[in-house]
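Practice problem: Solute:Na+ symporter, SSS family
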Amino acid sequence: MTTTTLAADNVLRLNAGALDYVLIAIYFVFVLGIGYIARTQISSSLDFFLSGRRLPAWVTGIAFVSANLGAVEIMGMAANGAQIGLATMHYYWIGAVPAMLFLGVVMMPFYYGSKVRSVPEFMRRRFGTGAHLVNAISFAVAQVLIAGVNLFLLSTVINVLLGWEKWVSLIVAAAIVLTYTALGGLSAAIYNEVLQFFVILAALVPLTVFGLIKVGGWSGLKEKVVDTKSDGSVTATIHDQLSSWPGTALSGFNSPFWSVVGIVFGLGFVLSFGYWTTNFVEVQRAMASDSMSSARRAPIIGAFPKMLIPFVVVVPGMIAAACIGDMINLKQSGSGDITYNDAMLLMVRDILPNGLLGVAIAGLIASFMAGMAANISAFNTVFSYDIWQQYIVKNRSDNYYIQVGRVATVGATVLAIFTALIASGYSNLMDYLQTLFGFFNAPLFATFILGMFWKRMTATAGWVGLVLGTLSAVTVFVLSETDVINLPGQGMPFLAATAAFIVDIVASILVSLVTRPKPVAELQGFVYSETKVNILGDPDDANKPWIQRAVPLAGVMLVLVVVLNIVFH
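Answer key — structure tokens:
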């Protein structure tokens, strides 16, 4: 582990011209304008925190995937692409799309049909205040930590690319996100995420196209890939980087069999389902939809761009490692003046022709702001509804809780400035992110899935399972940090998440068998077997074409992602 996340200023500095600054300024004007317009639409706390549940499926679907397309994904996935190659595709085709489809088909009916305002509120109504408080606090902490990653990278990128002082970059970036999120609430965040999605693509697609031209296309790229070395030994061979399975360089397991098991179970099931089905940052976008049908289709619609995004994120990382001297030297020697997190920035520096720098910089800024705004908007909802209103100040006016939400937005932004320092200690930010998900999302998913399909699970088991599951993930992390367990790559987060899931399930079952369950009458809408079928669907779906119905649409997306796994195996 190093203490430098990006390369020195003089390595990555761009000669941005007046036109580039004009493009960036125009982008900021649009972002703040959306926040101001959204402010006029707020008349209740539901408007501020959930957009009044009136947004169409295509808007919430794009926002669903854009909220995840932040600093960690673009920088981290490009870093993984440069370091280990095609196995990084598993984060999308195994570690995202199947869980997004499951959320739309199976879990959104419970979230949307129960009319809860947040995922922790669902926990409270299913398990009581113990599990609710544990979930609300752990979620709030996680969002501040992840928002810090986005803010840190945003300020650092502005610093190294444009030469602004880092503290100026930090304050400007934080102030802009704070302004439009505090003004317009979730609507401002969502509509900006839609705008940012297209700005990001406007930056990444040309970058990928020009990069492929430079290396001679896909065949030329394959010929130029070199072994990845670390500490004097090869950690990812050329063959490893050009094939996605068994993915030993990704998982850290020497055995191909256990590598596949680790990726499918640790990443594809525990981490992936834990993140996409219970993480309120994502679920909140679908909950803002205008109907049950739209809420179910939102993550399914988002799955289509999600399965294509690696071609403009992972592939540029591979290109950087095949044709840019600084990155080639890092791969061959295991050391240098840069880190793998610099892959995307090196591409911007060396590959893009003049005239596209402003678009590229705006796209990178957009990705970091989208990620941070998603974290902040989810944090202010959970803090206001699930912590402040539930446990501190009850029965106040709607306007009071809107103001609490705005204050929470300010507080989270300030805290993110400090948590940014933690992120600076990781040379590959995916390690940091997957560690956080193992701590918080894996045990939460275990509690959710067991409680949703087993009516005997009790309130006590809900919070005990969460606590013990999280502690087991922390234990694996500590054992790894003290070299008791030695797993390179993403092996440690996969193992931590798996341990958290198994311990949570076992503890929840044992505790449930010796404690009293809730009355069956209170479980409708929260447990599958006790919920009426008509609550789980939209009565208008029967008359709609397949592309507007959740289940057939999810089936098509599942076939497409299977095809991609086969083609790029």
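Discussion: Residues 18-36+47-424 form a domain with the Sodium/glucose cotransporter fold (CATH 1.20.1730.10). Students who identified this feature from the tokens alone can consider the problem solved.
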